[in-house]
Amino acid sequence: MAEQLDVVGNWTEIKLAIIEEYAKAYAKILERQSHIRHFAYIDAFAGAGTIVSRDTGEEIPGSPAVVLDIKPGFNHYHLIEIDKSRAKKLRMLTASRNDVSVYEGDCNSILIKEVFPNCRYEEFRRALCIFDPYGLNPNWSVVETAGKMRSIEIILNFMIMDANRNVLWSNPEKVMPKQIKRMNVFWGDDSWRQVAYESRRGLFGDMIEKRANADIIQAYRNRLKEKAGFEYVPEPMPMKNLKGMPIYYLFFASHNRTGDKIASSIFHKYRALGY
Fold first, then answer.
1. Which residue, among 240, 236, 234, 235, has the nearest Cα to 275 in the 3D structure?
2. 178-237, pLDDT tens digit by residue?
3. What's the rounded Cα separation, in Å, for the pair 113 and 119?
4. Using one digit for the tens of pLDDT, what is the confidence trace for 149-188?
5. Strand-strand pairing, 197-202 and 59-61
6. How many other C-beta atoms lie within 10 A of the C-beta of residue 110?
7. Domain topology for 2-162+213-272
8. 23 in Cβ contact with 16 (< 8 Å)
9. Which of 126, 234, 254, 267 fits a disulfide with 39 by CB distance 3.0 to 4.6 angstroms?
10. Which strands make up the sheet holding 38-43, listed edge to edge?
């Protein structure tokens, strides 16, 4: 199965540590709240359950395996993976547990149709959902649904490297239509164009210039608040490669003040460590 595992850099191991710390705090707090009947962990891009460290070459636990070991645990775990062989490995990893559901397919449809209906606020159910894709995913409609439900907290990876490589070019007229469509689905509409570019007067007339990553990330943060309706969205954590270039930004979004304080504290800790 080694050839089916992702090989990851140090930034992924840091992200896993962040997810583990927050998931531990989340489960501990929810377990003590008597009015909460059920709280779940959702991994929308679960992978095979294990990954390979680029630094050591060793196989290490991925986010599903990390969170499955947390004590106290969640009431249920929803693990979604589009790749058949990786979904099979997830089933093997969790075969001895009756508190895990493994789904094979596109998380954007599975979440809306099968998972989110089990996390309704009015039924005193809550969930922590991890969106950790390798590209511009998930669809905005899924993120907005999670926000409107009020019962779901999210940790989301905004893959800025994918956006810059395929969509946010200096000359927007050269971007392929299929890439524009991908960005529209991820963003929710085409308003990213106004965010990503600005018109300036040059020597030979108006010029279109691409704005900095920070402007685009801040605009997405605003969408999480204003469009999706999340009450708390702290400043995201930039996850950088060895050259110091952001690969993606790790977002947290919630309706819970305590969750916001904990997530902000965890982000601050890793920033202070130089990550």
1. 240
2. 999 999 999 999 999 999 999 876 555 566 889 999 999 999 999 999 999 999 999 999
3. 12
4. 999 999 999 999 999 999 999 999 999 999 999 999 999 9
5. unpaired
6. 20
7. Rossmann fold (3.40.50)
8. no
9. 126
10. 100-104, 76-81, 38-43, 125-131, 152-158, 246-253, 237-240
* 3-state SS track over the chain: CHHHCCEECHHHHHHHHHHHHHHHHHHHHHHCCCCCCEEEEEECCCCCCEEEECCCCCEEECHHHHHHCCCCCCCEEEEEECCHHHHHHHHHHCCCCCCEEEEECCHHHHHHHHHHHHCCHHHCEEEEEEECCCCCCCCHHHHHHHHHHCCEEEEEEECHHHHHHHCCCCCHHHCCHHHHHHHHHHHCCCCHHHHHEEEEEECCEEEEEECCHHHHHHHHHHHHHHCCCCCECCCCEEEECCCCCEEEEEEEEECCHHHHHHHHHHHHHHHHCCC
Is the overall model pTM greater than 0.90, yes or no? yes
Residue type present at position 207: M
CA of residue 151 relative to chain centroid, distance: 17
Place of tokens 């490589």: 165
Taking the C-alpha atoms of residue 65 and residue 208, their distance in angstroms, rounded to an integer, is 46
What is the gyration radius of the CA atoms in the chain, in angstroms? 19
